[in-house]
Amino acid sequence: MKRILFVEDNEFLLELYGVLMTEERDRWETSLASGGEAALKLLQQSAYDAVVSDMQMPGMNGIELLTEVRRCYPQCSRIIISGSSDQAIAAALLNSTHLFISKPFDLKILKSTLARISSLDAYLQDQKLRRLAGQMRTLPTFPTLYLEIVREIESQKSSIQSIAEIVAQDPGITAKVLQLANSAALGLPQNVRDPVEAVQQLGLTTVRSLVLSAQVYSSFAPGRLKSFSAGALWAHLMKCGGLARTIMRLEHADHAETEDAFAAGMLHDMGKLMLADALPDEFANALALASAENIPLAQAEMEIFGATHAGLAAYLLGQWGLPAAMVEAVAFHHSPEKSDLKEFSALTAVHVANALANEGGIERLNLDYLKEIGAAERLQDWRNTAKGLEMEPRT
């Protein structure tokens, strides 16, 4: 049984949330608080898996409350409900929340999030995965450049120029931003050479996600493993991220989850870098086993480590408190059937993008999963799109 806390100063809405959650009473125990201070008292008394707060409240508002929840209870999922549907506001809330739900309240969206929380919690609490994470020499810290960009986006003085100046602080990340901007998939009429122009063409949310993945990527030193090509991995991540976002757009997904899919596509194989860096000999054995027996690498990793690179990357992103949709897509990109969410989502897009990016190899699509969520008939359209999507720089 998991526990959820709703925070709302409108007594009618607060009672309504309690009534709506009776449908989930077999899995969720619901508590109600009429304001931020009352919510913090309840959090001090017992643990909660999720906090859902209205944004505009007297005294302590929802942003202030969830910022405090993030600081004191980082493993607690944070959801904010607001009467504004402005995506800029949603982006500004990234540091404090996992999900932004606009009013009128949509119970379906909340249920989807709760389904993610349920399946992810069980997965990330697996003892074998935790033991594997404990074998890492160090887990990367939250990328500082990414935080700077998030804070700049939140600033009222934010501009394309100011974001580009932050990106330009790191030559390696600048090169990767320009590489993506100059990919044929973006379809720009001419090559982009200036970071300001690249940021303008890519968009702030795309640059934010790209910087996140590029900083994680650059924090490892996989060169000790000769049989593992970090360069080939980055090319795959670019292709997978771009294709995942394209699939989301084809399905008319909302902007926030589309960008979660892009970020997850760019991050889904970061666990390979973690293993190559911390356990190079064991990871080499996994690569050899996969090749010798013609099995997916994730299957070989389970035999050797008892966990996979997907779980390891998701564990790291979960520790950082990134959006649940992003963590889920990374965690289950090889095994989407493990998610309790049975509908098209960022997970679907990343699973399909990863498989299509590897077509010709042994990567397998889970057709039963696609049929279960009613998306199997869309596969050919996605495959046709993938054939025309090239992430390599134009010549």
Overall tally of domains: 2
Q: Segments where pLDDT lies below 50 for 5+ residues?
A: 391-395
Distance between the termini: 56 Å
* Strand and helix order: EHEHEHEHEHHHHHHHHHHHHHHHHH
Estimated structural class: alpha/beta
Give a concise summary.
This protein has 395 residues and is α/β, with parallel strands linked by helices. The chain is built from 21 helices and five strands.
Which features characterize this protein?
395 residues; alpha/beta; 5 strands; disordered C terminus; Rossmann fold; 58% helix; five-stranded parallel beta sheet; Hypothetical protein af1432
Describe this structure as you would to a colleague.
The model is unreliable at 391-395 (pLDDT under 50). The chain has helices spanning 11-20, 36-45, 62-72, 87-92, 107-124, 127-134, 144-154, 160-167, 171-181, 195-202, 204-218, 230-250, 255-267, 270-278, 280-293, 297-305, 309-319, 324-331, 346-357, 367-372, 379-387, and strands spanning 2-7, 28-33, 50-54, 77-82, 99-102. The chain has 21 helices and 5 strands. Helix 7 (144-154) runs antiparallel to helix 8. Helix content is 58%, strand content 7%. The radius of gyration is 21 Å and the shape is globular. The longest helix is centred in the middle third of the chain and has 21 residues, at 230-250. The protein is α/β, with parallel strands linked by helices. It has 2 domains: 2-105, Response regulator (Rossmann fold, 3-Layer(aba) Sandwich), CATH 3.40.50.2300; 130-387, Hypothetical protein af1432, CATH 1.10.3210.10. A 5-stranded parallel sheet has the order 2-1-3-4-5, with helices on both faces.
